[in-house]
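S1.2 Input.
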Amino acid sequence: MTDQDLYLNLLKKVLTNTIHAKEPNHDDSSYARFIHDFVHHYIRGTAYTMVPVKRLDNIEHCLKQIEERQIPGDLIETGVWRGGSAIFMRAFLKVYGIRNRRVWAADSFQGLPQPDPANSPVEAKAHATQLMVEEYKHFAVSLEEVKANFDRFGLLDDQVLFLRGWFKDTLPTAPIERLALLRLDADYYESTMDSLVNLYPRLSIGGYVIVDDYGEDQWTYCRQAVCDFRDKYGVDDELIKVDTKCYYWKRSQ
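S1.3 Output.
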């Protein structure tokens, strides 16, 4: 195992708060037990990301493929919460001495947008629940806190850029020329669609799209947004399963 592997594997455990604790089972047959564990481990805990280690492994896999094939472009995550996955992306660039790519962290930094009850009733209902309002606080984390988290790892520098605001406002004019990795953790239909419509045309051939919530169906229309986009624009690249909730594909055309 290389020094880079040792560092990145340790970082995964720190970011997911799994050095001394076991991560929640995202496939737990008991939804109530999973939510209890999720809140305790992530929301009330010290984790910097809500994604399991397996999804950080997936990010690393995509980044290694991008580097090996020299796919041009930056890296972006839309929906960053405390910044953990984007921090991991920046750490990857750092340990491999990659200076020709940047990491973009796009978020409202004030929580999830209010879904339209008429068009997205399931999302609107979930948005108003006691769990979402009082425990999750709509996943609102300030830009200052996210920057401070990058800084804790010595990774807040000129290769990290932040896009603050609703995706419909920030992404159309974002000064991003080319992307190699597009990671979507936008939660809702509109935010997912805004990310794809505005950023997919900038994704290099051979680049990757990761959709964190593609397998979720109890509280979001994320999968429907992905399917609608792929159908409209003729994207037929194979969707590859990371785990039951997260899927990705490599752009071929």
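S1.4 Remarks. The chain has one domain: 50-250.
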